[in-house]
Amino acid sequence: MILVTGGAGFIGSHIVDALVAEHQEVRVVDSLLAAAHAGTPDYLNPGAEFVQGDIRDPVVTAQALDGVDAVCHQAAMVGLGVDMLDVEDYVSHNDLGTAVLLKSLAARRFRGRLVVAGSMVVYGEGGYACADHGRVAPQPRLTGDLAAGRFEPRCPRCEGELAPCAVAEDTPLDPRNVYAATKVHQEHLCFAFARETDAAVTVLRYHNVYGPRMPRDTPYAGVAAIFASSLAGGRSPCVFEDGRQLRDFVHVRDVARANVMALTADEVTAGAFNVASGTPRSVGEMARALADAAGPGAPRPVVTGDYRLGDVRHVFASAERAGRVLGFRASEDFHDGMAEFSRAPLRAV
């Protein structure tokens, strides 16, 4: 049996669907956190056993693990959040929740596969190259530069212009907001568990995931859901900075497929993997694609020049290792996926 924590959520529910379609026996445990769910979702797969409970509760977690030989850990509080007042909730849901799960697994002498939802936020700023100094790691952007509309990081050695590059899995981790810090700690806890127990741990670092079942009207949603919420309400999507910041937008069905591969492949694929399309696109391009798909009468995106200190400028992935080791390559077309997403109802919270 495979346990999917957070299996009622946006990504988790698609993983459950994909596992059930593969005739796997699946159990879901989800707290149905109020910030993400207005109630029990109507899309829960009837082919999976559902347990409502919080993995931070050792009793709930121990019971959920009964008879389980693989775990897909998706439960987390996601998104940049509102402000530092969220810090305790992020640490509690992401780090304490993971710690309770790992303690329960260790108590059972678990030696199966543990697949963990990672995130591209662990990289902070993505990769950059200076014409004179090669690959460099820029410092966090300064408030004064952002307020003046100077959004591009500069070379830390010569202040020259930088060219953004894809990040590979061996890129040093550099979390730049609370959520990112909890995701780094989650990885460290899981890899420490792997070293101490010989269990197989695979961390899938999702890039910007989009698709049906995303929540609407919440600061904890991804940028695609925020833009879709605006369009659904007849409002123009507000694009921060100059809209040229680069990301990798990957469809949730591709992400679900990557999880199934990691959980069921004949050979164990331990370590960290970027799960991404491999094609960087700007945030402005994504907003325009959503508006185009919504129809000719849809409001057009507005580039505001606003900024958030926790945001980074460019971060997109090298998908080479996932293809070579895991055998995963994204297959969903960006424009088709955005068209589908523009028509899909967002989940009420």
Number of helices: 10
Oligomeric form: single chain
Overall radius of gyration: 20 Å
Total strands: the figure is 16
Description:
The protein is α/β, with parallel strands linked by helices. It contains ten helices and 16 strands. It has helices at residues 10-21, 58-64, 87-107, 143-147, 178-197, 223-232, 252-264, 283-294, 320-326, 334-343, and strands at 2-5, 26-30, 49-52, 70-73, 113-119, 127-130, 134-136, 162-165, 200-206, 208-210, 238-239, 246-247, 249-251, 271-275, 281-282, 302-303. The strands form five sheets. The protein has a seven-stranded parallel β-sheet with strand order 3-2-1-4-5-9-14, with helices on both faces. A hairpin with a 3-residue loop joins strand 6 (127-130) and strand 7. Helix 1 (10-21) crosses helix 7 and helix 8 packs across helix 10 (334-343). The radius of gyration is 20 Å and the shape is globular. The two termini are 30 Å apart. The model has no long low-confidence stretch (mean pLDDT 93).
